[in-house]
Design goal:
With 316 residues, the chain is of the alpha+beta class. Helices cover 30% and strands 20% of the residues. It has a domain of 48 residues.
Length: 316
């Protein structure tokens, strides 16, 4: 907070954050009191008050995912460059780049040095003229940003009003958004891994916004999932974008993105269930392609499960 916020922007009057331990500790409370900061908190496990921050975090993680190594341990090496690329990119809601919106000018990039004359000394009267032009530019930029943000708010409101609710019926195969799972002892970062898992089966409804999903290796076998964490499944090639996080999804209370993963983080099985319909007819749930070969079989919880090869040469 000191290095990245106070040393860059000064002491804020108010500070809004979630209820993470780093924000509610006794040390943090003493820090706020010493600097006269009025600390504001969002509701527990409710991300909407920090919606802009959470949306940016999702974008940033998606950008980092394209550069990090397989073990995802070198993300900090790419962070400054990725942030700079984000800051000089055009934002539709701003009508310009974040860099220009903050400084009132465009950055000088390495390629610009080939065509710009940066060696001439400034004269005293030119400095005053530059300050005047910069002030006018900042004033006009602020007015422009206010208009653009109002337009963006109107567009978002119209988009929400035009959205058609997606309904899931009993028996539908779905993607489920959940946190990254990996083998015990691995130190891979959860944030940079895929969070959409499938196929799972809808087995019932609990209300307008909640469905019952069968997850074979879950202790409860059937779990309640909010519809914002579900997407229609149409095959493994239909996996949602890895950085696509459902709006309003809450972090797990005990999630620790920095610590090594444990055995409790193991993935749901890729084995699928055998279903018998109408006597001798046998199907495999979650499979959208013809089965070429049954590769393995096991019994789990008194239920037969099979590993199969489909016509698309995928095992599931």
């Amino acid at each position: 907070m000191v290095d990245e916020v106070l040393c860059r922007h000064g002491v804020p009057e108010r500070w809004l954050s979630d209820r993470g331990t780093n924000f509610i500790s006794e040390l943090a409370k003493a820090f706020y009191e010493t600097l006269g900061i009025k600390k504001l908190f969002g509701a527990a496990y409710h991300l909407q008050p920090q919606g802009l921050v959470e949306r940016f975090n999702g974008t940033l993680i998606g950008m980092l995912r394209m550069f990090v190594s397989e073990d995802r341990s070198d993300w900090d090496l790419y962070l400054p460059r990725v942030l700079f690329a984000y800051r000089i990119s055009y934002h539709d809601s701003l009508g310009d780049t974040p860099f220009f919106s903050l400084y009132g000018r465009d950055p000088v990039l390495p390629l610009d040095l080939a065509s710009l004359n940066t060696k001439n000394d400034w004269k005293s009267n030119e400095v005053a003229e530059y300050r005047r032009k910069l002030y006018l530019s900042m004033r006009d930029t602020r007015r422009h940003l206010e208009r653009q943000l109002l337009k963006a708010q109107d567009r978002n409101a119209r988009r929400r009003s035009d959205q058609v609710a997606v309904e899931f019926n009993e028996g539908d195969a779905v993607w489920v958004y959940q946190y990254f799972r990996a083998r015990s002892g691995e130190s891979k970062t959860k944030k940079l891994a895929f969070s959409w898992h499938s196929p799972y089966r809808v087995v019932g409804r609990l209300g307008e916004n909640t469905d019952k999903i069968a997850i074979p290796n879950h202790p409860d076998r059937v779990v309640s999932v909010n519809v914002i964490r579900l997407k229609k499944f149409a095959g493994r090639w239909s996996r949602p974008f890895p950085n696509e996080v459902p709006a309003g999804v809450e972090r797990l209370p005990d999630a620790d993105d920095a610590s090594p993963l444990t055995v409790d983080d193991l993935p749901t099985t890729s084995f699928i269930e055998r279903l018998t319909l109408g006597g001798e007819e046998t199907v495999f749930s979650g499979v959208t392609n013809p089965i070429v070969e049954v590769l393995a079989k096991r019994v789990k919880g008194r239920q037969e499960q099979y590993l199969v090869l489909t016509a698309s040469y995928e095992t599931c």
